[in-house]
Design brief:
The chain is mainly beta. The protein folds into three domains: 55-175 and 216-317, Beta-galactosidase, Chain A, domain 5; 331-432, Carboxypeptidase-like, regulatory domain (Immunoglobulin-like); 439-615, Galactose-binding domain-like (Jelly Rolls), CATH 2.60.120. The chain contains five helices and 44 strands. The longest helix is centred in the middle third of the chain and has 18 residues, at 300-317. The protein is globular, with a radius of gyration of 26 Å.
């Protein structure tokens, strides 16, 4: 019999269902044990983490190997990962319906530790089939400068027994049975750290890498594992995304073979580090997130479907009424911002605000919400008519941002005040998309901040995909506007090009015809980048012997190619081209990625979101 019904009882109420036993808490040696009749969690304080999470007789945490418990860690440089040590337990809240246990690490005067206090909370509620976790970071003004890149929680899954959870679930494109532990004992290492080649089992001849599962946390309701043999699942479910850094387009690790994780500070793909100078007091709360356990006689896919339903329940219950913390405003203390986004584009009349991202953020003056991690961000999708309502916003001053498929760039409006318990009604918010030209001569791709509409946009997450490019496409790549199909003839990434065992720059040519072109003025080549890494763009106009322009885009980094991504951080560059260099009839613009040192190949790259050429008005 399915136990799904027990897991959804009163997600937002104090107590998860009165038909279930009261929550218990007791000590076993130095550990704390929480139980509610559905799950039993055993918490340790050094290092802080979960050593056991039992559900229906199943142990949901691996008890051996490198990652043998649910742990937390901070990182400022690759060699100094710091697990949270010497946690001190205290009872934050204890009621029959809920127990909230704090395990806190205070920064000592020790330069080897990150200068911040970390307070990890474990919350078990009556009738809920899982354990909530939330964490606060606190940097008093008198602490030394704080710099954190990776800030994460890692959940090691049982994976090596007959009742394991052998299927991974991330999104519609990535859910399948993972290789077995035995397969990994025979796997071959590759020159790229983190990528192995499987030689046995169903994955024989294929590669595995943790980055192949990366995803934007805002795009998926949950992630985790389930088993057709065990009939159980284990999932990470964020009730909200407000505490994540860098906005809704940022991707990061979530699951990999044997592990589910959450990057509280998303650092990969050019994520921003937490940098708090001495003299600044700063605090932030991450979570709560639900470590959810479920089961179904119908197997793993049914567990995933249930986890997605539970995720929607958690989102609807946010902010949780049962959580009392001075860093977590209650619902009545938060505000709402509403309005109607109107997008007008004189050169592309079909562009509108349907399903646009609309959000509130607090980047530093002159900053970019794509690199904001000190504060909170609140984003929603507008409806089909552009109407939006952003609920549960913390009080304060914000900038409103909006962007949408089809439109290059973004809209912003400063000085949006959010007040506790009030709705800020903005009315019509109009974004008139600017254009440097009077008409579009041609365009390649769809402005959506990713390269997914191009070749390999649907299987970009395959490790070593870059070695296939030279067998599929020529060097130079020849693209003819009006004839070529960008879904087949324009690759999702311009990287190095492999010939034999040598890598070389890969030239891309855009062939196009102009008619009735103005004789004077400047055309404009717009290049919207979905990702750029250690690379500049060389532009040649009708003469490949003479460099016309070297473009150094404003945003660079993230290693999206080697990390099997489809984008990193977005930026737009517009390059004026004198009409004297163009002509009526046939023209060619060539793009070459200036790749720096040969050792950077093939991973120095550009992923294009969209390109167009706009012509000036005739005089």
């Amino acid at each position: 019999m399915s136990l799904f019904w027990t897991c959804r009882a009163g997600a937002g109420d104090a107590g998860g269902g009165s038909n279930w036993p009261a929550v218990t808490v007791y000590a076993v040696g130095k550990n704390i044990v929480l139980g509610n009749g559905i799950v039993t969690a055993t918490i340790q304080g050094d290092p802080i983490g979960l050593v056991s999470l039992r559900y229906q007789g199943h142990e949901m945490v691996s008890q051996k190997g490198r990652h043998k418990f649910v742990y937390f860690s901070l990182n400022g440089a690759e060699e100094d990962y710091e697990p949270l040590r010497n946690g001190v337990f205290s009872v934050h809240s204890r009621l029959p319906d809920m127990v909230d246990i704090s395990c806190k690490r205070i920064y000592p005067q020790n330069p080897k530790l990150f200068p911040c206090d970390v307070d990890v909370h474990f919350v078990l509620r009556r009738g809920v089939s899982g354990l909530y976790v939330y964490v606060t970071l606190n940097h008093p003004a008198d602490y030394p400068e704080l710099n954190i890149s990776v800030w994460r929680m890692v959940w090691s899954m049982p994976w090596d027994n007959p009742l394991s959870m052998e299927r991974i679930y991330v999104d519609a494109a990535r859910h399948w049975e993972i290789p077995s532990p035995e397969d990994f004992t025979h796997a071959q290492a590759t020159p790229v750290k983190g990528i192995v080649k499987l030689t046995t089992g169903a994955w024989a001849g294929r590669y595995d890498c943790k980055y192949m599962y990366s995803v934007c946390y805002w795009d998926v309701p949950c992630w985790g594992f389930a088993g057709d043999n065990s009939k159980t699942g284990a999932w990470i479910i964020p009730g909200s995304r407000e505490f994540f850094n860098d906005g809704p387009t940022h991707a990061d690790l979530n699951s990999q073979v044997g592990l589910a994780e959450i990057q509280f500070n998303e650092i990969h793909y050019n994520g921003s580090s937490i940098d708090i100078p001495q003299g600044m007091a700063w605090q932030k709360i991450y979570g709560p997130i639900l470590l959810y356990c479920n089961s179904s006689p119908d197997g793993a896919d049914a567990c995933w479907a249930d986890a997605k339903r539970q995720a929607h329940i958690e989102q609807a219950a946010w902010p949780y009424s049962w959580l009392g913390n001075n860093l977590y405003p209650a619902k009545f203390e938060r505000g709402t911002v509403s309005g109607k986004l109107i997008i007008t584009d004189a050169l592309k009349p079909a562009v509108n605000a349907s399903n646009a991202w609309v959000g509130l953020a607090q980047p530093e003056p002159g900053g970019n919400w794509q690199f904001d991690n000190r504060s909170y961000q609140f984003w929603v999708h507008a409806d089909a008519d552009g109407n939006f309502s952003i609920p549960n916003v913390r009080a304060g001053p914000y900038t409103l941002f909006a962007f949408n498929t089809g439109a290059v760039g973004e809209f912003s409006e400063t000085n949006v005040a959010v007040k506790s318990g009030e709705t800020t009604a903005l009315g019509d918010v109009t974004w008139r998309v600017p254009h440097p030209g009077a008409r579009i001569a041609w365009e390649i791709g769809v402005p959506d901040r990713t390269a997914k509409e191009f070749r390999h946009g649907d299987d970009y997450f395959q490790p070593y995909l870059w070695e296939q490019f030279s067998s599929e496409m020529s060097n130079p790549l020849e693209y003819t506007v009006g004839v070529s199909d960008w879904s087949k003839d324009w690759n999702y990434v311009q990287s190095g090009y492999l010939t034999g065992t040598n890598w070389a720059p890969w030239k891309w040519r855009i062939h196009f015809n102009l008619t009735n072109a103005p004789a004077s003025g400047d055309a404009t080549l717009t290049i919207a980048y979905a990702s750029l890494n250690r690379s500049h763009t060389e532009i040649y106009v009708n003469d490949e012997s003479k460099l016309f322009k070297l473009v150094r885009p404003a945003v660079d980094g993230g290693n999206a190619l080697i990390r099997e991504g489809i984008h990193a951080k977005y930026c737009v560059e517009q390059v004026p081209i004198p009409m004297s260099l163009l002509k009526n009839g046939a023209n060619t613009i060539s793009l070459v990625e200036s790749l720096g040192q040969p050792s950077s190949l093939p991973f120095a790259h550009a992923m294009y979101d969209y390109l167009d050429l706009e012509l000036p008005a005739a005089k």
